[in-house]
Amino acid sequence: MDAADLEQDLVNVLFTEKQIQDRVGELARDIEVDYSGKDLLMVGILRGAVMVMADMARSFSRHVEMDWMAVSSYGSGTKSSGVVRILKDLDTDISGRHVVIVDEIIDTGLTLSWLTSNLGSRSPASVEICTLLRKPEALQMPIEVKYVGWDIPNEFVVGYGLDYREKYRNLRDIGTLAPHVYS
Ligand code: PRP
Fold first, then answer.
1. Pocket, ligand 1, Cβ cutoff 6 A
2. 107 counts as catalytic
3. Which helix (H) or strand (E) segment is 103 a member of?
4. What atom in ligand 1 is closest to the CA of residue 105?
5. What is the pLDDT of residues 78-137, one digit of tens each?
């Protein structure tokens, strides 16, 4: 199976590789401006945020420090329960640091809401969220997000870090899967 085969499983491409690269570059520039002269720690949420973090970090023309967290939601299916367990914590002491959490998608908002509060309790100078995608219709609680790539409809999307049963993360585009993939 090559990359072309992977792309054939998409029924609809929402964002092409070029669009994603351009938007990630814009977000990086916004962050650079906002954090000019300030120390900056980007916290990527494994595993989906690997792609956006890698591309965003390389779009910066300033120094940027990166750290990672892995979390798991209790509960079943594809929906978050809002109860979060830390599988891998930060290696960095964020006290007094300016933190930007980087994720690829906000769905219900429960994961990032919990994470923002968790990191906020560690005495950082500031905590903001950057997400490539957000589903406004799926949000279950208000969550302040400073940097958003795009708002999208409440559809299941894959690619650029987003998976279906751990596959399709390595697609360069983002899209919806063809029905035959589920059957
Ligand atoms: C995704 C995404 C967010 C979370 C958002 O991670 O990276 O962390 O879901 O969902 P929510 O807004 O409903 O809480 P996922 O649990 O799919 O793990 P992954 O990054 O390893 O794929």
1. 45-48, 80, 103-112, 163
2. yes
3. strand 98-106
4. 2
5. 555 667 899 999 999 999 999 999 999 999 999 999 999 999 999 999 999 999 999 999
